[in-house]
Amino acid sequence: MKILIAHDPFNESKPGWFQLGRWPAHWIAAAGPLELEPRAWAFRRRFSLAVRTTVRLHVSADERYELFIDGARVGRGPERGDIEQWCFDTYDLDLAAGEHVAVVRVQWLGALAPVSQVSVRPALVVAAENLAAEVLNTGEAVWECKRLTGIAWSKPAARGYYACGAKVRIDGAAFAWGFERGEGGGWEPAVRIAQAVNASGYTEYPSGLWRLRAAQLPAMRDEPRSIGRAVHVEEVPPDATGDRPVLAAHHRSAEAPTWDALLQRDQALTIAANRRMRVVVDLGDYYCGFSEAVLSRGAGASVTVGWAEGLWENEKGWAKGNRDQLEGKLVGAIGDTFVADGKPGRRFEAPWWHAGRYLEIVVQTAGEPLTIDRLGIRETGYPHRFVAEFASSDPRLAAVVPLALRTLAMCSHETYMDCPYYEQLMYIGDTRLQALVTYVSSADDRLPRKALQTFDESRQLSGLTQSRYPTRDRQIIPPFSLWWIGMIHDYAYWRDDAAFVRARMPGVRTVLDAIGATLGADGLLSAPKGWNFQDWVPGWDAGVPIDGAAGVSGLLAWQYAWVLRQAADLEELCGEPDLARRDRALAQRVSAAASAAFWDEGRGLFADDCAKTRFSEHSQCLALLAGIDGPKRARISEGLLTQELDRTTIYFSHYLFEAYRLLGRTDRIIERMQLWFDHAANGLKTLIEMPEPTRSDCHAWGAHPVFHYHATLLGIRPASPGFATVRIEPQLGPLVRARGSMPHPQGLITVDVACENGQLTGTVELPGTVSGTWVAGGRSIALRPGRQDVGRSAGQAH
Questions:
Q1: Helix/strand number for the chain, H first, E second
Q2: Which residues contact 538 (CB under 8 A, 6 or more apart)?
Q3: What DSSP element (H or E) covers 52?
Q4: Is 570 in a helix, a strand, or coil?
Q5: 6 exposed, middle or buried (CB, 10 Å; 0-12, 13-18, 19+)?
Q6: 3-state DSSP call for residue 633?
Q7: Which of 49, 188, 423, 629 gives 163 a disulfide partner, CB atoms 3.0 to 4.6 angstroms apart?
């Protein structure tokens, strides 16, 4: 099984400093000229053990691997990273005395790989800690290799930007069946290509090669699912081309139960020779999974398993309508194809996972019948364990939680992801909100930690982070670099690891300096180079506010001022009071300049541009969050609530909700939640990217209301770094009661509060040694560890 280790192996003292971190293994590859076309190989090592042994094995590959021991798969990987921090996975294998065979399938797609996949060249490394190097270690033991034939990759046709890589066609007649057991011919000795070294220990190493780091995350879920319901079955004419609309008139309802039996109970189904069938399957929920099929007979028959989030209303555009409704719509599925070789019980599996709610199964038989023994998926994703609970007097709020957490789960893998269907990339703006939802829902913070560190490692010579990482296509969104600092501030308060925060501070300072380099003598920021995306507001060019691409943007000024204040908090936490004072002074200077440049006296609002032609909720809420005070604060507070402004959409509404909290107007949060409330009625199982028509049906930045349920409505927030103390300041708005529990590093915090005759009363339970403050009705009450009533007496919790 996969385990996590807290140290890099092979970092013990060596005869010379230059050997520190050097593995007793080499990267290996197939012999012959380097071919940079999509390929898959199997590497084999036969070995024997004199006694039963628990073998600790470290494995990595470029790009992806599957590890088999004696024919059984024990893991996939490596955990995603970059060249300078290339992850290896660690397995503890309990092996009996006797003969064994280790096989590693390595896949390399190069330019056809997902955009999130970085690479040097095809290669494999394996090293055992407690066996002699010549037993299993690549480059020391004799490993054999052969190319796996019968596999072809092609770029899919997709609407819009698609970054998830090529799709596969596996031809059973040419495939190397039994490779996972080390069977078949064509095996040849592999060759050494580079010394394996640790990222943390090796001192001198050629640039551009892998520097190995231990995986930080547990194994992803790998759970077989027999699910789905055949909602449309039709026989397709052999000469039909293109995507056909789903029409009820073509549905063979009598055949649907046999497909359901196959999907749900693995009851074999046989399709006659020379037929072409199309079956649309509703999985009943949104899933991420590897497609798999077991086929018998039917030589030359093909089974294509395509995935779709929802069906399209037209050949172009994003309109999908109600996701439960299929009539007249196009599937537009993306997926993989398996071709039978006529033998019984052939098991096919896609080498990479897909996402969606619907499957489109297209079966084309040849001259003999095909039997499908199994057609299902192996569900994958990060093994979240959500422990939070929330309920209130408005049941609509709690109804959003399953959709939000399902969305977060589907966007959590070896990294967070913006969306699992189109991009599978980890963006800072998305990830900050995903991490906040994780903090209030799960005690496991390994994925947020990895995200923070990964973005830190993405920083460029300019000082800015990349907007998304890992990736082989560089993209810079300067506002996202600032949100990364906000994300560190979140972690510093919601979790307890000051050393981890301190390690991020050099990056915090370089980001602030990079943005500050555009600061003019007047205290205003000029637009930094890059895509200055803020929100998908209709009328904004590619999500960039007026003057955000080239000019002076009010949004960026207020964002910078706010983040400077958060950075000052971090500097104080890390024992740097002088740097904290510097950041606060600069924040004050930037705020004063923005207040003068963007203020419109007539409207009582801050404009987005110096010419004062555009006004948005974004500028007002960022000014509030940046700490604007005095008469202008009162006026923008009123204007934010009453005037017509460019409105925040799903993503940026998180910051609007934060501003509503400052104003004590959580009633407005619930009013703006209507978009979320409408999801279920529109047939959605997860949360969409933007207001309809939307591209992505599964975008976890929309899960942020779950954070606000706990942190804003119930008012549970850290009062000091490391969540050492808590401040609970409920703002129920129109609610008459709310109850919830959420994880804290020491256990669960539970709050049950009701509004009775205008007074908040209820109970609070704090875990471990946590103390804090209850704030309500203009009064503060000390909270102690354990359970206590609040609001029932004049001055004490009891």
A1: 15, 35
A2: none
A3: none
A4: helix
A5: exposed
A6: helix
A7: 423
Token digits of residue 586:
């600069």
Sign of CA dihedral 630, 634, 639, 640: positive
Instruction: Find tokens 């002088």 and name the residue.
Output: 578
Among 56, 60, 196, 69, smallest CA distance to 130 is for 56
Pick the CATH number of 223-379 from 1.10.287.950, 1.10.3630.10, 2.60.120.260, 3.20.20.70: 2.60.120.260
pLDDT at 200: 74
What separation, in Å, do the N-terminal and C-terminal C-alpha atoms of the chain show? Answer: 49
Residue 675 three-state SS = helix
Q: Which parts of the chain have pLDDT scores under 70?
A: 12-18, 201-203, 792-798
Q: Indicate the domain borders of the chain.
A: 2-148+172-214, 223-379, 395-708, 714-790
Tokens in use for 473?
């296509």
- Sort 793 into a burial class: Cβ within 10 Å, 0-12 / 13-18 / 19+: exposed
Please tell me the predicted confidence (pLDDT) of residue 630. 94
The angle formed by the CA atoms of residues 294, 296 and 298, to the nearest 5 degrees, is 125
- pLDDT score for 798: 42
Cα four-point dihedral sign 422, 430, 479, 476:
negative
The answer to whether residues 212 and 26 touch, using CB atoms and an 8 Å cutoff, is no
Q: Closest Cα partner for 728 from 670, 665, 770, 673?
A: 770
Query: Tell me: the pLDDT tens digits for 747-783?
Result: 999 999 999 888 999 999 999 999 999 999 899 999 9
How is residue 244 annotated by DSSP? P
Report angle CA 287, 289, 294 to the nearest 5 degrees.
125
In the prediction, which pLDDT does 773 show? 98
The topology under which CATH files domain 395-708 is Glycosyltransferase (1.50.10)
Q: From 476, 473, 475, select the one nearest 111 (Cα to Cα).
A: 473
DSSP run (H or E) holding 357: strand 354-364
Joined tokens for residue 775: 């704030």
Tokens at residue 262, please? 């196959």
Superfamily of domain 2-148+172-214 in the CATH hierarchy: Galactose-binding domain-like (2.60.120.260)
**Beta pairing class for 167-171 and 759-766:** unpaired
Q: What angle do CA 747, 752, 753 make, to 5 degrees?
A: 140
Backbone phi, then psi, for 82, in 5-degree steps? -130, -175
Whole-model pTM: value is 0.97
Per-residue exposure over 477-514, b if at least 16 CB sit within 10 Å of its own CB, e if not: bbbbbbbbbbbbbbbbbbbbeeebbeebbebbbbbbeb
**Measured torsion, CA atoms of residues 31, 34, 35, 41, in degrees rounded to the nearest 10:** 40
Residue 108 near residue 62 (C-beta atoms within 8 A):
yes
Q: Residue 201 has what pLDDT?
A: 66
Q: What is the pLDDT of residue 379?
A: 99
Give the architecture (CATH level 2) of 714-790: Sandwich (2.60)
Contact 342, 297 (CB under 8 A): yes
Residue pLDDT, tens place only, 742-754:
999 999 999 999 9
* CA angle (177, 178, 181) in 5-degree steps: 160
